[in-house]
Design goal:
The structure holds 2 protein chains of 2 kinds. By secondary structure, chain A is mainly alpha-helical. The radius of gyration of chain A is 18 Å and the shape is elongated. Chain B is an alpha+beta fold. In chain B, 38% of the residues lie in helices and 16% in strands. Chain B is globular. The relative contact order of chain B is 0.14. The chains are: A mainly alpha, B alpha+beta.
Chain lengths: 66, 494
């Protein structure tokens, strides 16, 4: 059994997840460290995200392919 | 005994001009490629051997060929790494050179992203100030328009096509659990079915048929295009249109590694009949279940989840590799495949370092939690799109990678090298080296030929109908003895 899998199992036990009615998995609290890590990622991504999300998304239209 | 699986991918990239409604995607794509290719643009693509409407089921072509992109004067070049870089309809498209292993394919698939990024940088230097393009390696604009990421596998002509359809369809339906690139919402005719906030794949919404020749409407799970680009008596090139564009190296590796191995099992008739009762509906159902537990019905009445179906394939593949085809490459595919299925059963969200759909979902959930965003928020749509931006500084996948948040399989050095260097163990080596060494003497090229103009009256065609010939081992000495192209052609004819 590769170590990687063992680690994943341990992680799961430490964390856990639950399902809401629509079948979507909610990320419940995975502990302070994981939350901190996620906040760091989001801060980093905030700094590169395109501005004016609504206009940007509306103008992205692709016609023709394959 | 199954034949070696030569692998390639073709990626159509999304392209847009920020804040420019007059933007022409066809001309912009052409300009992008021409700017990168420079003088290599002179070499023609040789269409003589191509017939995209030939059908693997043996039908005659059903309609006349449309004018090619080349007829319209659009860019279509062969690169020194053996790849093809061209305009396909309204997109820049990158076809990797032929690769002999899944890991090599990952390197060249990634090199394609770097080539698009360099192209964009070079184009931005010559465009008027304020004109800015963006390029995405994804498969949907979120408004019902899809563009493809196609895989190609070399298959033994002797293997009946019916077996491929029977055995590969359930595999394609179920492999979505690790190949999906993730998508907010649903598109097309499925849109009104509505409550789906997020699904595993970009592409499943666009598939409506089980088998067929189409790629742009009524898309089939198994595409029947029969254009081998190799000796047609010996080979098929299985053209797979049902996959997503992956950013994660592990996802690309699993996608092509497991598919290539399953094709070997099909050729050696190693699989039980896992036919599904309703493949198209099952494709949609699997994509729309992020818990990966939804069961699909088999033709024999059994009900299995996608992950359970994958275990059926994996168990057979393990036996096959042990008994018929032991190799370190196969062992590595089996090891990763098993680890992935184990984790999918245990907790799919634990795979955020390996799989695109999980990595992206984690980001979306993070934003929802931190900013209290509704699933319909435009910012989440932007995250869904910008995850696929091919720029290292802008693409959200790349920001995750730079922060060490996704698993890497190959090194940046290997990717950078593949921008100019062909794979060494397929005919791409000969093609790429000739492009590097004798660019002025090559009049035209295609996947299975090079046409030399060495000053004689007639052009000299060098056929390359064996994808595993023309490797470094085969031709390096020949190329070293050929300081000029006339010598090379002479030696080849002699």
């Amino acid at each position: 059994m590769p170590q990687e899998q063992e680690q994943k199992k341990t992680q799961k036990k430490a964390g856990g997840g639950s399902e809401d009615d629509a079948g979507q998995v909610q990320s419940t609290s995975k502990g302070e460290k994981l939350k901190e890590e996620m906040d760091e990622i989001l801060d980093e991504i905030d700094s590169v995200l395109e501005e004016n999300a609504e206009e940007f998304i509306k103008s992205y239209v692709q016609k023709g392919g394959e | 005994m199954a034949i070696s699986k030569v692998i390639g991918t073709e990626t159509e990239y999304g392209i847009s001009a920020v804040g420019a409604p007059e933007f022409n995607p066809v001309l912009s794509s052409s300009l992008l490629i021409s700017t990168y290719a420079g003088s290599l643009r002179r070499i023609r693509w040789d269409y003589e051997q191509e017939s995209p409407l030939r059908d693997a089921r043996g039908f005659e072509p059903v309609q006349m060929r449309e004018p090619s992109e080349e007829d319209l004067g659009l860019a279509n070049v062969i690169l020194p790494n053996g790849a093809r870089y061209y305009v396909d309809h309204a997109h820049p498209e990158y076809s990797t050179p032929e690769c002999a292993s899944p890991r090599e394919l990952v390197i060249h698939d990634k090199a394609g992203e770097r080539i698009l990024e360099r192209s964009l940088e070079e184009l931005h230097r010559v465009l008027p100030a304020g004109h800015r393009l963006a390029i995405y390696k994804n498969n949907s604009d979120g408004k019902g328009n899809s563009y493809g990421t196609h895989e190609n596998y070399l298959v033994d002509r002797k293997s009946p096509f019916g077996n491929i359809v029977r055995d590969l369809t359930p595999f394609f339906v179920s492999r979505q659990v690790f190949t999906g690139a993730g998508k907010l919402g649903a598109e097309g005719a499925w849109e009104e079915r509505g409550r789906h906030r997020y699904q595993l794949t970009q592409r499943a919404d666009f598939f409506e048929a089980e088998v067929g020749l189409e790629t742009t409407l009524k898309r089939p799970i198994i595409n029947t295009r029969d254009e081998p680009h190799a000796d047609p008596d010996k080979y098929r090139r299985l053209h797979v249109i049902v996959g997503d564009a992956n950013m994660c190296e592990v996802a690309t590796y699993l996608k092509v590694g497991t598919t290539a191995l399953v094709l070997k099992l099909i050729e050696d008739e190693y699989l039980p009949d896992l036919s599904l009762a309703n493949p198209v509906a099952s494709l949609h159902d699997v994509s729309r279940d992020i818990t990966c537990t939804t069961q699909v019905r088999l033709a024999d009445g059994r009900r299995l989840s996608a992950v359970q179906l994958q275990w059926e394939y994996l168990e057979r593949a393990k036996k096959y590799v042990e008994q018929e085809d032991p190799s370190p490459d196969n062992d590595e595919v089996l090891r990763r495949w098993e680890a992935t299925l184990t984790a999918l059963e245990d907790d799919p969200l634990s795979l955020h370092r390996e799989l695109d759909w999980v990595a992206k979902l984690r980001l979306l959930e993070g934003y929802r939690e931190r900013d209290g965003l509704d699933w319909s928020d435009h910012k989440l749509r932007l995250v869904d799109l910008q995850y696929h931006d091919i720029r290292l500084e802008k693409g959200l996948y790349y920001r995750l990678a730079a922060a060490g948040k996704v698993e890497r399989l190959v090194t940046d050095a290997e990717i950078d090298r593949a921008i100019m260097e062909p794979p060494e163990d397929t005919r791409a080596f000969f093609r790429g080296r000739c492009i590097s060494m004798y660019p002025d003497a090559i009049a035209a090229a295609s996947w299975d030929s090079l046409i030399f103009d060495v000053g004689k009256e007639a052009l000299q065609r060098v056929p390359m109908r064996e994808p595993l010939k023309g490797t470094r081992e085969h031709v390096e000495a020949l190329l070293e003895r050929s300081p000029d192209p006339a010598t090379l052609v002479g030696l080849l004819q002699g």
